[in-house]
Design brief:
Elements: E1 8-9, H1 17-23, E2 25-26, H2 29-49, H3 51-59, H4 64-119, H5 124-130, H6 140-155, H7 158-166, H8 171-226, H9 231-237
Antiparallel strand pairs: 1-2
Helix pairs in contact: 2-3, 2-4, 4-8
Length: 242
């Protein structure tokens, strides 16, 4: 059996070898894994349905019970793989929501900070105490801490919020900015949870793959030896001659 990573595929081309070389590209890991699943699905189906193959497999210790065991391993892997895909889709969606909400939060903060710099242009000490520059930090942790500090400190300065209202930034706008930050916090937590679930799903899929691939590798090796004089069946099974 082969892992799904670092697999390459040649794209068919009717031109020169150089053209074919240029057309070479890396296969998507998901496509490679699904191709492996397709081969395994076909092998197990033939092993259960084809009379000649059933007899051959049984003669080398792979009777109906053993094939059923392999089918169970395959089904478990397939289910784990579908769960992994679902988890990764959820993680991607959660990340998109999180980033979109952070963008909104930053935009609302920027409007308030612009007004603050205007109304406190003659009071640099108060402006510095609010630490507005920290609201532009890139990393979530420091950015989140900066927002919590900023809105708490601003709420303790009614004189400043009064000045902001005088230049078109009323308390309602400040509340909206604070809500946008709170929404971003919620989305970040959801994204973190979705990422953890995706990691758990990946681990479960990897565990299922190890069990399945061990069984299938042994089975294919036994079949390859038993079908040494049946190249057509080996071709049906996708067993490559070396």
């Amino acid at each position: 059996m082969t892992e799904e990573n670092n697999t390459e595929q040649n794209i068919p081309d009717e031109n020169t070898p150089d053209d074919k070389k240029k057309a070479k590209k890396k296969r998507n890991p998901g496509e490679a894994f699904e191709a492996e699943l397709a081969v395994g699905r076909n092998t197990l189906k033939l092993s259960a349905d084809d009379p000649g193959l059933k007899a051959c497999a049984a003669s080398v210790g792979y009777g109906a019970g053993k094939i059923s065991q392999g089918q169970g391993y395959f089904d478990a892997l397939n289910s784990a793989y579908e769960a992994q895909k679902t988890a990764f889709t959820a993680q991607l969606n959660a990340h998109t929501i999180y980033m979109d909400l952070m963008k909104v939060s930053r935009q609302k903060n920027s409007r308030i900070v612009q007004a603050l710099r205007l109304v406190l242009r003659d009071d640099p000490k108060t402006l510095a105490n609010l630490k507005p520059a920290d609201l532009t930090k890139k990393a979530y942790g420091p950015w989140s801490e900066a927002n919590q500090y900023f809105f708490k400190r601003l709420g303790e300065l009614p004189a400043v919020t009064g000045l902001l209202a005088g230049v078109g930034v009323p308390q309602a706008m400040i509340d909206e900015a604070k809500l946008a930050f709170n929404n971003t916090q919620t989305a970040e937590t959801a994204h973190k949870n979705a990422r953890a679930e995706a990691q758990r799903a990946t681990a479960a899929k990897n565990d299922a793959y190890l069990v399945y691939s061990k069984w299938m590798s042994r089975y294919i090796n036994v079949l390859a030896a038993a079908l040494v004089d049946d190249p057509q069946m080996k071709e049906k099974l996708g067993i490559v001659a070396h």
